[in-house]
Every structure is written in C-alpha cells, then in structure tokens.
Design a protein that fits this description.
- With 143 residues, the protein is mainly beta.
- It is 11% helix and 43% strand.
- The strands form 3 sheets. Strands 5, 6, 8, 9 and 10 form a 5-stranded antiparallel sheet that branches. The protein has a 3-stranded antiparallel sheet with strand order 3-4-7, with no helix packed on it. It has a two-stranded antiparallel ribbon with strand order 1-2.
- Strand 8 and strand 9 form a beta hairpin.
- The N and C termini lie far apart (54 Å).
C-alpha cells in the first residue's frame, strides 16, 4: 500500500513537470501558462530574425515613431555576449532609407555560432538621438 502511494505521487509529479517549461537563459522552470512577450522598445513595433538559406540571417522590424524623424538604420551583430558592455558589435547591414512601415536586411556568409542582432535607428530633428531595438539571438550550426 505504501509503495502504491509513493508510486502515484511520483507519477503525478513527473506528469505535472512535463507541462512546465524552462527559461532558456537561466534554466529556471516557468510554471505560468502565459505567453512571454518581449518588451517593445520605443519606436519599434517588432524586431525578428530568422535563418535565410544555409549561412544567412534576415532581420525584419517595424518602426513607426510618428513624432520623430528617422534619418537611417544600421543592423548590428555580435558573436560576443550581447549583455557585455564591451561586446564588439559589427555592422551587418545597411537597409534602405526610412519612410516605410517595415524593414528587412539580410546578413550573408555568417560563421557558425551564437549570433546576436540589434537595429540602431538614427533620430534627427531638434533632439538627435540613437534608439536601439531589442536584441535577438540565433544559433547557426556548422554543417
């Protein structure tokens, strides 16, 4: 009887743990069933990256800050830890001039590893500024 009770408790724990997910960064279990949304950075409607072919990455984003004048964008990438303030960010793409609802830039011939991308928007006008998007990371596996 005691073995049956222990077996039932262990089974329930195993089944319930199968429905939780791990945070990919910290490895901690997330027991909430709500979808995690990335914070939206001022001016950016969205920012996504995805594989493009065998060794390419395409970045797409939307920028609709109506009160500011965007003079240009630069897509940047790093193979370093993106949270490191001394990470080496390289220019990965210079997309077309602003004035659209969404933008796209493809980085070709990337090396295998973990790559992090961000977009830098240059704001002109009376108060010039630089606004960065959130950071997205992708893993390119060597073939």
């Amino acid at each position: 009887m005691k073995k049956s009770a222990v077996l039932i408790v262990v089974s329930v724990l195993l089944i319930s743990s199968a429905f939780t997910s791990k945070d990919p960064v910290s490895g901690a279990r997330d027991n909430s069933n709500t979808e995690k949304l990335r914070p939206v950075v001022a001016g950016y409607d969205f920012f996504r990256i995805h594989r493009q072919g065998r060794f390419g990455v395409t970045a797409t984003w939307g920028f609709t800050a109506t009160t500011e004048t965007v003079t240009g964008f630069v897509v940047e990438r790093t193979y370093d830890d993106p949270s490191d303030p001394y990470a080496n960010w390289e220019i990965a793409g210079l997309p077309v001039a602003p004035g659209q609802r969404s933008y796209k830039s493809t980085d070709v011939n990337v090396a295998p590893g973990f790559l992090s991308y961000r977009v830098k928007a240059f704001i002109g006008g009376a108060n010039p500024a630089t606004v960065y998007s959130g950071i997205e990371t992708i893993h390119i596996v060597a073939h």
